[in-house]
Amino acid sequence: MTAYAFISGATGGLGKAFAVECASRGWNLFLTDTKPDRLKTLTEGIQRTYGVQVAAYACDLSDYQTRSALFAYMAEMQAAFHMLINVAGVDYEGLFQSRSRDEICSIVRVNIESTLDVTHAVLERTCPGQPLHIITVSSLAAFYPMPVKATYAASKRFLLDFFLALRDEIKEYGSTVTILCPAGMPTTPGSIEGIEAQGLMGHLTTSDVGNVAAKTIDSALRGKAVVIPGFLNQILQFLGGLLPPVSIASMVGNRWRSARKKRPSLQTKPELTRQYSSPTPG
Fold first, then answer.
1. Above 90 in pLDDT, residue 136?
2. Closest CA relative to residue 138, chosen from 275, 282, 268
3. How many CB atoms lie under 10 A from the CB of residue 51?
4. Which sign does the torsion angle of CA 161, 159, 259, 253 carry?
5. Average pLDDT of the chain?
6. What is the pTM (predicted TM-score) of this model?
7. Phi, psi of 184 (to 5 degrees)
8. Helices 13-24 and 209-222: angle between axes, nearest 10 degrees
9. Is CB count within 10 Å lower at the N or C end of the chain?
10. Which residues make Cβ contacts (< 8 Å) with residue 73, sequence separation at least 6?
11. Which of 80-84, 122-126, 246-250 bottoms out in mean pLDDT, i.e. has the lowest?
12. Is 282 among the domain residues?
């Protein structure tokens, strides 16, 4: 039985950074993402550079049947896991009524349903005698009600609350749960556009993905519960907790209205913005 670190959304900016960081530590990898060609390229590159074993399975995590096929493949190869890194997630930016119902439900299916399904499957295949370290990518948005990103922020709040509860459930086995709550990261053209639209504040709250991946893994191995990259982001989270949620929603709404003037795509029906690599909803 070979031990792996499981990473979903592996070919996106943050997922790839986690994959490289794990491989540089000599850990075997089990990678999944929706694009087979990008997954193959990443797998071959990591194997060639770091000499670790890399298993890969292309999977649309938004679909129950394809997730079931992924889990069957894990069982067939008798994979065991010492680390799980839940990266895959989607975000459709824009006013709630401007999104289709399928788009809204896709956020729930990928960010919540698939993350819980993957976590449950990995917990069934832990390494005997070893603790499992779980890292789940939430967001700084989890701490606030966010107009223009209402469903996304709520889905990330769900992940924050759920994994804090799971952390307590599995601590008796020596396992840990760490929730990563970053602000902006320049991982896609859409995310870079969003950062630019927010001006100086967007740049000040942005974090480098490689540095975030390395520090988050270090924090997980130490058993830290929540990681918020960047001192300014930590201050914003603390100050946000001092204000009523209705005031936070109003402030965030005003900020997005200002950003929309610089980012025309937010004024109508914007395209999908992938903060992390993830399955594309059909």
1. yes
2. 275
3. 9
4. negative
5. 86
6. 0.84
7. -70, 145
8. 60
9. C
10. 57
11. 246-250
12. no
Measured between alpha carbons, how far is residue 227 from residues 18, 75, 237 in Å?
15, 32, 11
Domain housing 235: 3-273
- CA–CA separation, 231 vs 122, rounded Å? 33
Q: One-letter amino acid identity for 51?
A: G
How many whole angstroms separate alpha carbon 4 and alpha carbon 25?
12
List the 80-86 sheet strands across, edge first.
54-58, 29-33, 3-8, 80-86, 133-137, 176-180, 226-227
What Å distances lie between residue 282 and 110, 115, 195, 272, CA to CA? 12, 18, 27, 12
Residue 281 lies in a domain: no
Kindly state whether residue 279 falls inside one of the protein's structural domains: no
Angle of helix 115-123 relative to helix 150-170, nearest 10 degrees, comes to 20
Number of domains in the chain: 1
**Does the pLDDT value for residue 276 go beyond 80?**
no
Name which of 197, 196, 92, 106 is nearest 146 in CA terms. 92
At 37-60, the pLDDT tens digits run 999 999 999 999 999 999 999 999
What CATH code is carried by the domain that includes residue 99? Answer: 3.40.50.720
Burial class (CB in 10 A: 0-12, 13-18, 19+), 214: middle
Q: What does the block give as tokens for 104?
A: 């809204």
**168 CB burial (10 A radius; 0-12, 13-18, 19+):** exposed
User: 280 lies in a domain?
Assistant: no
Mean pLDDT within 220-240: 91
From 34, 119, 36, 26, select the one nearest 81 (Cα to Cα): 119
